[in-house]
Structures are given as C-alpha cells and as structure tokens.
Give the backbone structure.
Amino acid sequence: MVITHSTHDAPKQEVALPSALAGINSNVLDDAILKKLVDPDVYYALAQCRATGVPMDRGFADALAKSIREWAQSKGCIGYSHWFSPMRGAIHGEKLETFVGVDFATDRLIVEMSGTQLFQTETDGSSFPNGGLRKTHEAAAYIGWDTGSPPFVYRQTLYIPSTFVSWNGEALDQKTPLLRANMAVNDLGVRLLSLLGDNETREVVCNVGWEQEFFLIDREKYLARPDLLAVGRTLLGAAPLRGQEMDANYFSRLSPRVSRYIAEARDIMWELGISIHCTHNEVAPAQHEISPIFGLANLVADTNVLAMDVLRDLAFDHDFAVLFHEKPFAGINGNGKHNNWSLSTDRGVNLFVPGKTDEDNRRFIAFIAALLRGINRHGDLLRCGVSTAGNDHRLGAQEAPPAIITLNLGERLEAHVNAVADGGCFGGYETDEKEIKVVAPVADIKANLEDRNRTAPFPWCGNRFEFRAVGGNQHIAFPLAMLNAILADSLKHMCDEIDAGKPADLVIRETIKENKGALFSGDGYSEALNAHARQHGLTHLKSSPEAYTALTADKNVELFGDLGIFNRHELTARQAVLQEAYASELYVEARALLRILRTLIIPVAIVDADVECASGFQSRLFDEKRKLVEQLLSETGKLDELLGAFPNDDPGQSAWYAHHELRPCMQSARIVADMLETLVDGRSWPLPGYSEILHHHQ
C-alpha cells in the first residue's frame, strides 16, 4: 500500500507504508467495509435494526449473512462463533460453529450461514455464573449479535460480538447492562440538552479509552509457581533485591525481547481494528502498558477483552506468561485499567469541555452537576463496580485511588463550580490552554488548565474524566454500566425538576449546592480525605464484601428499575455472583497456599534446619529458623481449620468469611514463609523468587 503527499514546491510523491500500518483494519468488518459488500437497501435495513432493535426482514438478513460469510471465507475461516461475556471476569465465551449445513432434499453438505444464525444462537445458561437466574431444569439462554460492535476474524474464526440473556430476557452477561445504561444516558442526555435550548442534538454517546497494565514474565518461571498457575498471583515471595527504587523501569527502554512481543501484539490488534496508540514500561519491574484511542463504550469493552486475549495467546509463542491480576506481586505496583470516559453528541460536541460562550459553559456545568450528584448519591455503586478480590489489594495503595469515591475537578474549576452554585455566572472559567515556558530552543508547552491528580478516583482531565479505580483483570463493561447508570439517574432528576417548572439555571445551581460534598481536589492518600468524607457523609466501603451489599440498597434498586437497566431479581442475582466470585477466589487461594506450604516450603525448611543441627554449630540464625518453622506449622494448622469451616450455603456469608477469616490467616502465614525465604539456603528453595521472576525476562 502507498500513500501520496505533496508540497507547494514538489510534485506528489508515493511513500510506501510499513506492512504493520498497511494491515490496519484488515480483519475487522466495520461499516466502511460492510457498505462495500452489501446492497444499499441491505445496509439500510441493518442500520434500522441497529437503531430500533426491530429484526431485519428475513431476505435482507440472509443476504447480509451471505456477504459476511463470504468475507470471512476470504480470510480463511471455515466457521464462526458468537463472542460473549458471561459474569466471570474478562474471559469471553465462544460457541464454535461451522459454515456447513445440509441440503435435506439431497442430503448433501452445503456451505451456508443464514440470517437467523448470524443474529442469534442458544446455549445453556445454567452452567455460567448467574446467581439463580437459570437453574438446571430451566437452562435456556440466548446469545444475540450486538450490531454496534463489528464482527472480526481472529485465529481463522469469524467472531460475532454478542449479548447473553436468559429465556426471560434477564442479563446474564457484562455487556447487556452497559448497553442499557448507554441507552439511558442517550435518552436523558438528549432530553436535558433540549431543556437547555439545544433542539438539534439527536444522540449522546459514551466514549471510553482504556489503559491496560500487565506483567510479562518467563513462562518457565510461571510454570514453576503453583500459585501463579492456580490464581494468577504469588501467594508467597520475599521482596526482590531490586524493586521500584529510582523508578528505573517507568518509561525506560523496552528490552529487545519485550519489544518484539509488544510490536507483534500491536500489529495483530491493528488488524482487528484496535487502535493501540501507546505502549510503554510501567512503574514495576516487568510491568508494561498498552492503550488505544477512545471509542464507543460497548465497542471498546469488546476490544479490551480481545486485546487481553491477543496478549495471552501471543505470550505463549514468545515463551512469556502475561499477568493481568491486580496484585501479582506483593510490595510493588499492581495492575490497573484506567478508563478515560467522556460524552459527546452527534454534532461533535464534547460535553465535558468548557466552551467559549456562556451557553456552552452552562451546558458544561450542567453535565458536571449531574455527574457530581451521581457520585455523591451513588458513589457506593462506583465502588461496587470496581470491587473484586484482586482489586482490594490495590485501592488506597500507592498506585491506586482510595476506596472513597469523590469527584476531582482541580482547584480552579472546583472554585468556579462552587461560585456558580452560589449564583455566579456560568461563564468566566478560562478555557485557553496554559503555556509553560521552558527555555529556547524548546517551544512553549501547552498544558491543561488543571494539574493532574493521580490519587483521585475520578479526576477531570480537560476533556474527559478518568475512572482510575478499575482493576487490571476486570471486564470494563460492569464498572462503566455503573458509571453511566448514576449519571443517567441524575440527568433524569434534573430533567424532571425542570419539567416540573423550576428554571433550568436554578436546578443546575441547586444540584451543585446539594451535592458539593463529593468534590475533593486534594491528596487522596492523605488524612484530609478521610476527614472530608466524615464531614460530608461520604460512603467509605473498605472491602468488596461491604461494597456488594450496596447493590441491592433500596435507592439503587429504584435507580436501576426506573432506568430499565436491572430489575430487582437481576440485581439480587448479580450481587450473589459477585459475592460467590470473591469467596471462591479467596477459597482457592487459601487451598493453594496450604498445599504449597505443606508440600514445598515446610519440607525444605525442615531439611535445612536438620542439616544445620547435624553440623553441630550453634547460632542465633539457626534458632530463628527453627522458630519460624514451628510458627509456620502452627499457621498452616489454623488455615486448615478455617478451610474446613468454610460456609458454602450463602454467598454473602461466604464472602464475609473469606474476607474476615481466610484472608488475615493467609497473610499471617505468608509473613512467616517470606521471612524463611530470606534465611533458608537459596539453592534449595523450591520456588523461583521475586528477583528471578521480575528481572529474568529480558
């Protein structure tokens, strides 16, 4: 492929594109390609189906399916799969089917895919996490193509991004709630804009750009760690000889081996239409990050899971293992997945950018007010949206925001918003970029008007907000559904107030004034935040089991029901799924730790102590090791007893037990084992240590 460019003084020149750039979008069936493959009336019918949900005419649907099948066949595909996201984390589901049918008139095999096969399929809904929505004797569940997320070809299979619902239409997946929340934001965003005098906007969409952090380690070291194999994080491990001192890894040069891996992964993602724009080393040794350009929320929720799949699959080819767990190694930074979130209209207006006119700024402040109210009244839902056993290791630590959810606007914008609440004009907030003078020959640097705050869970970044609390191993659809739901609820409240006769300006000002306790632009790691939270009654849910209880609070049941996102039955089920996942993860961790201690660590430590006793030497070091072995035997006995008493009847009880009983006991045992690791003969220690894992992957 070639591109042309010209200057005023020279004729056009042809410049060849590198193969990686020439292959972008080649394996994704986006609308630009689809329009070339189908007749205009077929494409129009698909657009109508996408906008209304009304099924296509059978003839049009069959014609569309035929064109899509032939495109996939040209890529080497012999079959297809509806690609969906059950409630089990960032792990998709797939049901592989072929382009083979039967002509029953002749009993001969034929090549086909009908319109019905393209748009939906059926599977068992009782074998996935469902919180009681599906039972063995009523197992039917349906997978339906999300026509707003284009099909793609990966590993010689046509994948069709889909939703997953029960026979009763209840959400069994991560995507359906997000689509419902997106629709609520669209409907109510357009309604508020109309009440503010904008009668031209017909659509408000949610855009997201994710940042995926991960660790790369040698596959050989990974296979030698039973804890990594079982649960994705190390349950034992003394501090490495070199950790994050001097931030030596952050934005440093990629090693040749890592560079080759990431470049190949990026090229595959480009072919799949994933706009990977930035790659770099992260803070911890062996930690890295990729991030794309923003896109529509439901589409990028799919591309994030797909990107994780590509990274996993390719790691095997490069003798790597990739770790997405929020805290795979104790004592050093874990994996987050910051979500850069914004709203825009079909007229190209970013609703979170201050404008040049008073009307533009009025609109900007109105949507800020809605977001502020949502966080103040329903911050518990945002906390619930990022609550997992893995993420509990991060929140409030040095690399992640606190568990108290606040809105950070920056000092100047916060002051302006407060002034508006007190009757000030909507305009007046300076919108020109700040210029930083460095020194010639460096040109003046244009900077955001507000400084960045990396300790905030939800800071404004000049044209978007950054939801920083999302975990590296999460499916982003659920936290985004929570975020869009709380915004839609506040948009509805403001619209209802205006429709009831209140002046729009008064509604905006009152909304800010009543909820400004959720504004905090200080240090999120300081005691000042805790004091602020106590003063203003902000929710502080310190653990995931606490956060899960919020999901079925009356105010939240009302919110989701009014917006048509979840009914009470769906909420109760999802709460149970979250609780069960939390309890199961800690239960498996505890069992893995107990077996590692009993079969690997303690036998080696005992042999090491026996050798020293046989030597006849006496020292305080030998005495310390023997005491640690005795202490570790005691800790394993306690852990065994706790596992034996683990409650299985109630998910909520199991989650609380895992958090309050198993987790502290595991930590106590780990402290002793990690101390032993620093004292026992390193040649006999049975597990690769942190230094080997983190620094031997170059």
Q: What stands out?
A: The longest strand covers residues 157-166.
